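Pilot study result, target chain (112 residues):
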Amino acid sequence: MTTLSLRKPRKSCDDRNCPFHGTTKVRGRILEGTVISAKMDKTVILKREYQFYLPKYKRYERRHSHIPAHNPPCLDVKEGEAVRIAECRPISKTVSFVVVEKVEEEKSGGKS
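Predicted structure:
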C-alpha cells in the first residue's frame, strides 16, 4: 500500500472533512485538474482532461470530466488553480474526493 507524501498546509482549520486536521482518510485514486468553479460552500468543481482511444479510427480523442471535490478551508483554492485531489469516503451525494494540494505549474520561458 502506498502512502501519500503531502505537505501540511500552513493554515489550520476545524473542518472535520479535512484530510489534514479532521478525520477523513484518503485512499484510492489521485487525480489532477483545474478548478473551474468555486462557488459552492467548501466544494469545488474540477475539470480533468484525458485522452480516449477510438479503435475504429486508431487514434485518440480529447475528453474531459467534471469532478466535485471538497475544498478544506486551510487550502482555500480559487478558480483557475491547478490542484491534486484524492479519493475519500462519500462526503455528500456527489462528493467523494477531497483537495489535498495545489500543484505548482511550470512557468515556460517563452517569448514575451
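One observation from the pilot: The domain at 26-102 is CATH 2.40.50.1000 (OB fold (Dihydrolipoamide Acetyltransferase, E2P)). A full batch analysis is planned for the follow-on phase.
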